[in-house]
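Suppose you are handed only two things: the residues of a chain and a line of SMILES describing flavin-adenine dinucleotide. What would the bound structure be? This form records exactly that question and the answer produced for it, so the two can be stored side by side and reused later without any lookup.

QUESTION INPUTS
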Amino acid sequence: MTKIIIIGGGASGLMAAVMAARRGADVTVLEHQSACGKKILATGNGKCNLTNTHIYPGAYRSHAPGAVAEVLGRFTVEDTLDLFSGLGLYTREKNGWVYPYSQQARTVLQILLTEIGHLGVDVRTQVHIQKIFPDTSGRGQWRLCTDSGIYRGDAVILAAGSKASNLPGADGSGYQLAKSLGHKICPVLPALVPLVGEGDHFEQWAGVRMDARITLRLDGKDVQEETGEVQMTGYGVSGIPVFQLSRYAVEGLHEKKRAELSLDLFPSLDVQGLEDLLRGKKAQSPHKDWTAVLMGIFPEKISRIAARPAQPRRIARKLKDWKIPIKGWQDYTYAQVCMGGVDLQQVDPRTLESRLHKGLYFAGEILDVDGACGGYNLQWAWSSGAVAGRAACRRKKRDRKGSP
Ligand SMILES: Cc1cc2nc3c(=O)[nH]c(=O)nc-3n(C[C@H](O)[C@H](O)[C@H](O)COP(=O)(O)OP(=O)(O)OC[C@H]3O[C@@H](n4cnc5c(N)ncnc54)[C@H](O)[C@@H]3O)c2cc1C
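ANSWER OUTPUT
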């Protein structure tokens, strides 16, 4: 029986455990926290947006996009939904975003934990891995030194996630383990993260939420546009459309580019249309100042800031192109995912086995892949976990046949 050790009991590790144990492997999950799947519980504001039925090329970013497509093609969204449905999960979908019908992330975690319990997977929590050694006999055996003794396996799946989130388990230790085995780590930075603006006026708008079209400019060039609810904060901006742009903003800033957001706070009218609207409203109530006029249309805090030029053309222009120079991003604790990670070019995308060490596999966010908001990151965790879990338990058979 193939003995597989999975490092990390998160989304990808639990999926790998299900896949390997179903194929008859003897599976042990080593989790350094007190319980598995803590990040799953935090997903989708506790509702867990577990996948998205609309996969498009721009949904994932990596230095090896072909490898990402290969993995997603080997365990697809349909495969994921079939698997969860077979485990008893009933889902609901809105504009492609899929949630458990219960709207509780705990449902998804519970279903996975029940299945691995049923399959006899050995889950060890609060285990801290000190070192991973490939066996020198060259037969693909692995030894793991931990604070609770030595574990041995025919294959190891490193599914330790990224540094994103405020959960203590997300400490980036997986990158160190991969590095200690000679794997290249593409620069890791937060993605899906709030952005920090330049200037001192943000306190004045903190707490406002508005639907807006938002454009990211790098060195003066428009690079990406998103629409949705923007959250104005005391330091800058947050919310789903900001998260979607943040990856490119962080990357640009990291490359020393000038980053700026432009907010269009009235996307349904052009500048002239908005100016006409403002003039019309003012004509209805000439006794009102511009702040009072704007307050009939916009939130009070926005009205107070926007009314300052006190001239309809300039107000309309400001509301249609509200420039926010971006000086940085919030740290990892505010991020939902990280860009960068274990370089996929050193991993076989058909199996997620290391090209450097036989019997070493990777799954999940530890790899150099990050997805957009909308269930894409969990889908990557499910797909990569399934591919690695299936392949790892074929190890012994392949070794016996002598095939790669
Ligand atoms: C607040 C928040 C909301 C999110 N919402 C969504 C969403 O709705 N939809 C979506 O698609 N994605 C969402 N994501 C992203 C998604 O949760 C992750 O991409 C996904 O969980 C990654 O799976 P993983 O298995 O790679 O890592 P994780 O789920 O983070 O699991 C890694 C596990 O490994 C353990 N570990 C780490 N290092 C070690 C070590 N050295 N030894 C032993 N164990 C270790 C960790 O404790 C953890 O349990 C969200 C993320 C956050 C932070």
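WHAT STANDS OUT: The first strand starts at residue 3 and ends at 7. The chain has two domains: 3-188+338-401, 195-329.
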